[in-house]
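In this section we walk through a basic example: taking a raw amino acid sequence and producing a predicted 3D structure, encoded as discrete structure tokens. The instruction is simple. Fold the sequence below.
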Amino acid sequence: MPGSRLWGWLGPLLVTLFAGVLRFDRLANPHAIVFDETYYAKDAAALLKFGVEHTTVSNADKLLLAGNMNIWTDSGSFIVHPQVGKWMIAVGEYFFGVTPFGWRFSAALIGTLSVLLIARIARRMTRSTLLGCVAGLLLALDGLEFVQSRAALLDIFLMFWILAAFGCLVIDRDRARARLADVITPSLAQGAGPWLGVRWWRVLAGVCLGLACGVKWDGVYYVAAFGLLTVFWDLGARRAAGVRRWFDGWLFRDAVPAFVALVPVALVVYVGSWWSWFASSIGWDRNWGPQHPSAFGWIPDSIRSLWHYHAEILNFHTNLHDTHPYMSQPWQWLLLIRPVAYFYTSPKAGELGCEAQTCSRAILGQGTPAIWWAAILALVVMVVWWLMYRDWRAGAAVLGVAAGILPWFFFPSRTMFFFYALPALPFLVLALTLTLGLLIGRSNATPVRRALGASVAGAYVLLVILNFWFMYPVYVAEVIPYNDWMYRMWSDSWI
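The resulting token sequence is shown next.
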């Protein structure tokens, strides 16, 4: 890694500090249940109290906001997402109470740490501390990531574990190629090449992917995508090393171990993430197995119960076709056509500091337009760049976006929302960062070329900063005049 090791950490950490200040500032505002916090804040509190999700009384939200925890009935509840994300929310509630700050704390922390991850990953991929910091800044200033970092919803945790898995695989790629270069000999090159041993960074990627699936099942798309990514990186490494029987070496010494490191490891971690459900006696379907004897008696009743529970969850997702005012289709996501209004009130003059006849107080789950719209062009550049030069970095960015968005096209009648695209966002940022790197040019380019490219790249980053600053009031429920709110609604479909 070229450049200063000190600045390689200090630069990303400073960007992360900036992101953290943005996310934790007035985190408890508004003192309200925001959108799907109505599910996950209570589910997290139930995990702390019962070890499983629990049914609540009808006015539980009102009681919770008043500080009254007498919200539980006497049975476990049916849930449609696994427990990892809710356990992560529960950490904040454990330390800071079942309050808006408590249930949003973990999301803010994870959203902040995601900025550090993307900065370090981009630095490793580009060998540039500057571009790493740019990637961190872009993620820090994206409206969707920002809003998701300030609400107790699951998608920020899904994005984090997917990004962490990708970072592990990038490190594994560097170390595996370095190891191959160190041990390859002419005699080994004549055969299938060496086995590189247990690759613990890839195993850790499997752990992260298992945790991603433990937040939402969407993580399985990245298990498949990253599995293909890492084995094709290995194939390229053996061919570049001059291994004669590269296919044999790749298949038996890379691909098979990669499958074991990712798929079975992710599966074991995922099943293990249900530990509190296994330990309980009141979880939904926990006693289904003993109540329904099977010819497959050798399978533990607890596993059969969990399998049946998953069948019910799958049935729910398969038949989720209800209309919703903020639903959208995946082709609309990159275009920012239909965001989600998480919170909206209309204070009158004198209320909450409103200085106009009518004010607006909103939390709009919308990406920063200067990032998302520019990312469309950046994706085109990355596709062309990969086709022309087979640049692995361009291919990885495109694949990461594809894994986060394309699978949803196969479920056109399902109820979907824009924030489902959040796992693809870090890869959009990587595509933008790599494109900015191309604009700036190589280090051996002429000074005029570098200066011109740096000016264009710098102007773009400044545009992102200004765009985020302009949209900031409708990301954080700031009380602003109604007309000022309307200025920020750039399309009727945003309302």
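Looking at the output, two observations stand out. The longest strand covers residues 359-365. DSSP finds 20 helices and five strands in the chain. In the next section we compare this with other chains.
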